[in-house]
Specification:
The protein is an alpha/beta fold and 346 residues long. Helix content is 36%, strand content 17%. It folds into two domains: 170 residues, D-Maltodextrin-Binding Protein, domain 2; 141 residues, Periplasmic binding protein-like II (D-Maltodextrin-Binding Protein, domain 2, 3-Layer(aba) Sandwich), CATH 3.40.190.10. The strands form three sheets. It has an eight-stranded mixed sheet. A two-stranded antiparallel ribbon has the order 8-9. Strands 11-12 form a two-stranded antiparallel ribbon.
Length: 346
């Protein structure tokens, strides 16, 4: 184990541009999505060790990250949702999206003996719409033949605060259920038809554990770390896919746009987990603004390159999904498009 760890660190050292002797490393400031914060903390610590460049990241939420980037108070913003055309048009200059990893939102529950269940898109939508209210409902039993389920009430648990996890989950439901799309819709915070709300993943997990018969949604890593079930979900190809870093990464093996602004919820990938999403770092394409130095621009572009290449060894151990090769290739083009006074940086 120690030999493997030392080898990994050596590879990072050899593939990262070192700080010239006597030169002062440039510090960077970022803010945004809370979902990738554990990963970013690890990545930025290792990057600082290898280059001397300190990257301070404030986990204030995706919306906050977008707002602070647009107001040019940070070097980069983190977001679990990409900026739409209207938001980009209102920005003071062109903004580009660099994907850093993927994450999964999983269905978890509290039932006796940790019974293993699987779910279809219709079942998930009907449960969270309040149309299916008992665990022994024929619809659930039909998808899980041979499973004994109690005649108990289903207690729906959801987030009460605005979150990227809720955005991903409600976007998925809007794609697979016309009724959900029309009645509830997509958002970081929505008017839930039924259920109990709690703040953050810890709050949701706590309610699910407290109430027998509860069901809710969590980020994959949080469910695994808390020894909670993560149910397989039927994807568009009809396969029941177990959520994992691998199946989440596979969900992005579809036709990816050049700007990488894409929703991979309800993926077309036959082996992909269907409730998945990229998370992005957002930066201005032209870096010569607000008295920024060329060295700051170079430091930012090099850090992004490292995160999407050497840094991809860190997502999976932390229960995130690494970028698939197609996404890495697109990211390279996006990072290379960054300029300083119109000239390529990287």
């Amino acid at each position: 184990m120690l030999k493997k760890l030392l080898t990994s660190y050596l590879l990072i050292l050899l593939t990262t541009v070192p700080v010239p002797k006597g030169a002062k490393a440039v510090d960077l400031l970022g803010a945004g999505a809370t979902f990738p914060y554990p990963l970013y903390s690890k990545m930025f610590y290792v990057y600082w060790q290898r280059t001397g460049a300190k990257i301070n990241y404030q986990a204030i939420g995706s919306g906050g990250g977008q707002r602070q980037l647009v107001s040019r108070t940070v070097d980069f913003g983190g977001s679990d949702s990409f900026m739409d055309n209207e938001a980009l048009a209102k920005a003071p200059a062109e903004i580009i999206h660099v994907p850093t990893c993927l994450g999964a939102v999983v269905i978890t529950y509290n039932l006796p003996d940790n019974v293993q269940l699987r779910f279809t898109p219709r079942l998930i939508a009907d449960i969270f719409l309040g149309k299916i209210t008992k665990w022994n409902d024929p619809g659930i039993l039909e998808i899980n033949p041979g499973t004994e389920l109690p005649e108990a009430d289903i207690v729906v648990v959801h987030r009460s605060d605005g979150s990227g996890t809720t955005f991903v989950f409600t976007e998925y439901l809007s794609k697979v259920s016309g009724e959900w799309k029309n009645r509830v819709g997509i958002g970081k915070a929505v008017n839930w038809p039924v259920g109990l709300g709690s703040k953050g993943n810890p709050g949701v997990a706590g309610l699910i554990k407290y109430f027998p018969g509860a069901i809710g949604y969590l980020e994959l890593g949080y469910a695994l770390l808390n020894n909670m079930p993560a149910a397989p979900v039927q994807n568009k190809s009809g396969k029941f896919i177990k959520p994992s870093p691998n199946s989440t990464s596979i969900s992005a093996r579809v036709g990816l746009p050049e700007d990488m602004r894409i929703s991979i919820n309800d993926t077309d990938a036959p082996e992909g987990y269907p409730i998945s999403s990229f998370t992005w770092i957002l930066v201005f394409k032209e870096q010569a603004y607000k008295k920024r130095t060329a060295e700051t621009a170079r430091t930012l572009s090099k850090a992004l390159w490292w995160m999407t290449h050497e840094g991809q060894e860190y997502p999976e151990p932390l229960h995130y999904a690494p970028l698939p090769p197609e996404a890495v290739e697109k990211s390279e083009k996006i990072i290379r498009s960054m300029t300083y006074h119109g000239k390529p940086i990287f």
